């Protein structure tokens, strides 16, 4: 079950990746009064369910084949129009897109190489995938046409409770959002909160409603800005200052880069995985501080949103449509101090082996500095070695910051070698599936690895 949920979480990242483009077009179009640009950005947000159907299908399909995306789109149209022919009040929204994408991706994996009799040979292979997807979705449209209305009613009730629960709901969401990061399942939770719950003139979810002008939206995003722009960068500073003096300069370069990435873009996983497995206590403290930040922002009635993550780019891009956004910077400074004091105290008091505090025999070896493609080639070979060699890697995929793999024999995986290659953490889901946290350069590393696997 965890492996299946992981695949869903990973697949959601492809359609989510288009949201920054939507945000830029929408906000710059509004700011510069360029109507067609704003309309272009809005069109992406208005058609997110279809985009999810296509993106999730490609994410689920082996090799990311575009045929699965076509099948996902066909399946989505059949599902939407079929269910609404039975009950016009049905609106499956993003869930309909995700369901269509999953079905199309799974059917692609099962039937993309099917052989049909000669007189039907034209419809064999990949061409059969949209056909079988259409047949499956007709059946599902009939089922959901009668099953979905009460489910939709329950979802709406849950959504109204969460949206109207204010600081408590925001705090609980913030806490769970961080706790699910080690399993990569936070994307699933996020999709319910940001794209499904609540309704404002047809726009659903905190993110969509925020950009549609809903004055009540943005409370499930605002509290992340103080954490990602100030809190976690301050945690990096604490880890730098707590490191051994002879390693402090090296750690400043490594952790300083991660801190700047977090501040600017809101990508935080490389930082979180630098202490997650070393000290679950630090991670729980981080989750509680995140929860308190979201609860505080909601309590102060601050509304701010993002299309990608809570970094400086999204903050300043959307500041003109936010409510009390400048308070987030003041709160962020306070949280920066809290993070620094708490992390430095716990690291030094409990002697936590954060980067730069490792014993000499555990520390990373000196590596010859390389640039460009050669750097990724070298890293790829090191990762392959740490994963037990080419023969041990059955499936290789990646998301924003992680390699996601299936291996033949988990006992051959050498975490120390992966760490020396640059890994921030290793997550073993079961006896074959694992994730390796690489960072924002994961795609380049994955591509270099793939060249050695084919």
Structure report:
This is PTS system N-acetylglucosamine-specific transporter subunit IIABC. The chain folds into 3 domains: 118 residues; 198 residues, no CATH class; 82 residues, Glucose permease domain IIB (Gyrase A, domain 2, 2-Layer Sandwich). The relative contact order is 0.09. A 4-stranded antiparallel beta sheet has the order 3-4-6-5, covered by helices on one side. Strands 1-2 form a two-stranded antiparallel ribbon. The chain has 454 residues and is mainly alpha-helical.
User: Helicity level, as a percent range?
Assistant: 55-70%
Helix count from the secondary structure assignment = 19
* Low-confidence blocks of residues: 361-369
Q: Estimate the global geometry from the Cα principal axes.
A: globular
CA distance, first residue to last residue: 29 Å
Can you tell me the number of structural domains? 3
Largest beta sheet: strand ordering: 3-4-6-5
Q: Given the helix and strand composition, which structural class is it?
A: mainly alpha
Element-by-element helix/strand order? HHHHHHHHHEEHHHHHHHHEEHEEH
Mean pLDDT: 86
Number of extended strands:
6
If you compute it from the alpha carbons, what radius of gyration comes out, rounded to the nearest whole angstrom? 23 Å
Largest sheet features: 4 strands, antiparallel
| Multimerization state | single chain
Estimate the strand proportion.
5-15%
């Amino acid at each position: 079950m965890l492996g299946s949920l992981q695949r869903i979480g990973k697949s959601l990242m492809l359609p989510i990746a288009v949201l920054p483009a939507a945000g830029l077009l929408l906000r710059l179009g509004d700011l510069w009064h360029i109507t067609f640009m704003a309309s272009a950005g809005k069109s992406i947000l208005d058609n997110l369910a279809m985009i999810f159907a296509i993106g999730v299908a490609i994410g689920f399909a082996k090799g990311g084949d575009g045929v699965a995306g076509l099948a996902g789109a066909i399946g989505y149209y059949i599902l939407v129009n079929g269910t609404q022919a039975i009950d016009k009040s049905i609106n499956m929204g993003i869930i309909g897109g995700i369901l269509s994408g999953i079905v199309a991706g799974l059917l692609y994996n099962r039937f993309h190489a099917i052989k049909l009799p000669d007189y039907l040979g034209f419809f064999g292979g990949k061409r059969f995938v949209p056909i079988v997807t259409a047949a499956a979705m007709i059946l599902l449209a009939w089922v959901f046409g009668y099953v979905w209305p009460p489910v939709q009613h329950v979802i709406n009730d849950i959504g109204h409770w969460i949206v109207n629960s204010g600081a408590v709901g925001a705090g609980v969401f913030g806490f769970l959002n961080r706790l699910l990061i080690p399993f990569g399942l936070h994307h699933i939770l996020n999709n319910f909160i940001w794209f499904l719950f609540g309704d404002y003139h047809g726009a659903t979810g905190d993110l969509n409603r925020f950009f549609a002008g809903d004055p009540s939206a943005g409370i499930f995003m605002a509290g992340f800005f103080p954490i990602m722009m100030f809190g976690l960068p301050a945690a990096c500073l604490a880890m730098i200052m707590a490191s051994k003096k002879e390693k402090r300069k090296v750690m400043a370069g490594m952790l300083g880069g991660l801190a700047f990435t977090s501040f600017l873009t809101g990508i935080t996983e490389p930082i979180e995985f630098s202490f997650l497995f070393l000290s679950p206590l630090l991670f729980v403290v981080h989750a509680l501080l995140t929860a308190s930040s979201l609860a505080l922002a909601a309590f102060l009635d601050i509304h701010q949103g993002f299309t990608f993550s809570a970094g400086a780019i999204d903050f300043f891009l959307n500041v003109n449509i936010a409510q009390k956004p400048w308070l987030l910077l003041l709160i962020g400074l306070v949280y920066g101090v809290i993070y620094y004091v708490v992390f430095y105290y716990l690291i030094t008091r409990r002697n936590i082996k954060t980067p730069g505090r490792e014993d000499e025999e555990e520390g990373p070896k000196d590596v010859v500095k390389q640039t460009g493609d050669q750097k990724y080639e070298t890293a790829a070979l090191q990762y392959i070695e740490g994963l037990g060699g080419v023969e041990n890697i059955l499936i290789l995929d990646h998301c924003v910051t992680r390699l996601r793999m299936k291996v033949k024999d988990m006992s051959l995986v050498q975490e120390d070698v992966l760490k020396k290659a640059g890994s921030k953490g290793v997550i073993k889901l079961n006896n074959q599936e694992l994730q390796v946290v690489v960072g924002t350069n994961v795609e380049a590393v994955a591509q270099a690895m793939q060249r050695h696997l084919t």
